[in-house]
Amino acid sequence: MSTSIKRRVALGLLALGVATLTMRPATAQTVDEIKQRGVVRIGVLSELPPWGFLDASGKLAGYDVDVGTLLAQKLGVRAEFSGMTVSARIAQLMTNKVDMLLATMGMYPERAKAVQFTEPYAGLKIILLANKNQKIEKLEDAAKLRIGVTRGAAQDIAITKGLPPGSDIRRFDDDSAVIQALVTGQVEAAGANTTYIINIRKVMPNNEFEQKLVFNDQWMGVATRPGQKDLNTWLNAAIDELKANGQLDAISQKWTAQKLPDFPTSLPGVPYTVQ
Amino acid sequence: MITSLGPVQYLLLLQGLLWTLALSSVGFLCGGIGGFGIALARSSGLRWLESLASAFIEVFRGTPLLLQLFIVYYGVGLLNIDMSPWLAVAVALMLHASAFLGEIWRGSIQSVPLGQTEAATALGLHYADRMRYVVLPQAVKVSIPATIGFLVQLVKGTSLAAIVNFTELSRTGTLLSNLTYRPLMIYAIVGAIYFVVCWPLSWFGRAMERRFTPADRT
């Protein structure tokens, strides 16, 4: 065999390898297809403790991962988690990289146009966080302050809407940058959610921050591609069961140190079932 | 939530570093091949080929790498082609590096006095031989400082691959900083790792220059 032919064979094999790697796995549209495949692919966040994050051993862990594990058990299949970022999660679902998202995804009407949510399985509150000695009783009290938020997050939207134009709202790329800015005094208050405090307490046990205002409740549901009626129905039934048998409450206690909130039976603009 | 870095977290950083090195190598190798072609085209003496190469250089040197990555990855995705981030980043880095290296090497080729080319032509050497035996050996030496300078930029530029969800060194740093809420410490470590990679490159560049110098004196 001449070198040139060898090289061509090698190139061919390489091309084949690349093709195999980039080929899409078969799309599972129904519960039966997932059961047949023996594995359910779940997208979770990889950097949002306590919801979905890499733990000390480098494995994905958190509230969402625990719920996903229970769902996989119910399906009788293996759970395969992929960690993703907030900005990439919907694209990953739509391009069939995963079957469903348990990615701390707040159920808002704009998002419900892109994905199909189930009923909520978790909740948190979008809040304003500031030093104890700041007097903030309503949002207007914060108008003079430098406020840090995560760009495009629910707290960014709520604060931007509530404050007069020209307020000093500083947008950061991620949660840790907001916290860093708050801790170093670059900002005097921060748009946050209730789980920030849990995290800050772990890093700085003697911090002086407290929850000042609550903007809204945020509910998190499982997201699937639109129109997956079979999967959506199954997931809603499974979540109902986890709520009834106390397993979901145990997960809530474990990760947020709070009992499971009372979930709303419907959300405006966010249907729980395929219409 | 983790509050300090253990062996597993350093392993993650190491994995990120390996991706950064892989991206830099692919960018430099593919960009080197592309850049060599561009440099030859830019100094070919054929008007149409020179303008074509020149247009390529202007486009990819005049737009940010971040934008190029974005367009290659998401633009191709819009055409419904499933492109892995790895391939997208490799292509974008190659285009980017080709433009820069092409222009650096074009300058080096043209820094060799025209009289040498004329003399080689007079001796009956064809284009390939002229380049191989007369022009390029001298051009290579001239190009080393700028080439190494670009390589160092490229290593740091790969951090932009994070935009297509690529977990290289900088992205690993962001991830760990979100897990630990200690961005200052994490980014200091990440910065130190970049330095440890880039500094030997500069050193290597100087050593190469010294090595090529005696050949110049003959």
Characterize this entry briefly.
Chain A is an alpha/beta fold. Chain A has helices spanning 3-22, 31-37, 63-75, 89-94, 109-112, 154-162, 175-183, 194-203, 229-244, 247-256; strands at residues 39-45, 47-48, 52-54, 60-61, 78-84, 100-101, 116-131, 147-150, 169-172, 189-193, 209-224.
Provide key terms for this protein.
heterodimer; A: 275 residues; alpha/beta; D-Maltodextrin-Binding Protein, domain 2; three-stranded parallel beta sheet; 10 helices; B: MetI-like fold; 8 helices; flat
Write up what this structure looks like.
The complex is a heterodimer of chains A (275) and B (218). In chain A, 38% of the residues lie in helices and 25% in strands. Chain A has 275 residues and is α/β, with parallel strands linked by helices. In chain A, strand 3 and strand 4 (60-61) form a beta hairpin. Chain B has a single domain (7-213), classed as MetI-like (MetI-like fold). With 218 residues, chain B is an all-alpha fold. The longest helix of chain B is centred in the first third of the chain and has 36 residues, at 7-42. Chain B has 8 helices and no strands. In chain B, helix 1 (7-42) crosses helix 4. The interface between A and B is medium-sized, with 33 and 24 residues.
